[in-house]
Design goal:
With about 200 residues, the chain is α/β, with parallel strands linked by helices. The protein is about 35% helix and about 25% strand. It has a domain of about 140 residues: Threonylcarbamoyl-AMP synthase, C-terminal domain (Rossmann fold, 3-Layer(aba) Sandwich). The chain is built from 6 helices and 10 strands; from the N terminus they run βαββββββαβααβαβα. The two termini are about 20 Å apart. InterPro entries: Nuc-triphosphatase_THEP1, P-loop_NTPase.
Length: about 200
Amino acid sequence: MNLDTVIPTKSQPVYIITGAQAEGKTTFLTQILDQLRAEGVKMQGFVAPGYFQDGMRSGFSIINLETGESEELCSTTPEEGAEQHARYYFRQKAITFGNRAILDIRSDTTDLLVIDEVGRFDVQGALWGGSITRLVEHHHPPMIWTVRRDFLGIVTERWQIKPVIRDIGSISCDEVTEEIMGDIRIYRSAAKQLD
C-alpha cells in the first residue's frame, strides 16, 4: 500500500450507502459513481454487482473502478481452493484483486476510494477486512462503502468510524453525489496547498 503519498491532512469522511439485502445498494452506488465520473472524479476501489441464475442470486463479480478489469468474486458453485462464506465460494484470485484495488492509493490519481460491499465476513477479518483496517488507520481520501442495514452496527464498531450514513430508501443519488463532491473539492484543495 502506498499510503505515504496520500495527502497528510485529517482523514476524510467515510460515506456508507445502506439498504436491505438485494435492495439495490450497488445499483444506487453505480449511479452516484457515474455522476462523479462526469465531474472528473478519479476513483479507485471496486463495485461488486450480483448476477442471477434461474431467478436466484448465484454470485458476484468484482470490477476495478480504475482499470475496468473484472473477476468472478464468488458463486454458489463450489470450486477447489475457494473460501466458503455462507452459501458462497469466494475465489482467492478475486480477493487478491479486490484488496489490490483498494490498497494502492495515490494522491495524484485518487479523489475517492470505493468498497462495495463491507459486511460480516470483513468484520471477522476475511475478504477486505485486513485492508480496511490498514486504510482507516492512515490518512485516506473520501471513501464510499456499501453496507447492509443489518450490519451497520458491527461495521462501525469494528473500525471505530463515524460515517456519513445514507439509506437508499430515504435519499436520492443526486443528493448523495452533491455531498460527496463537496468533500472531494475540500480534499483536492488540500492537495493543491501541499504542491
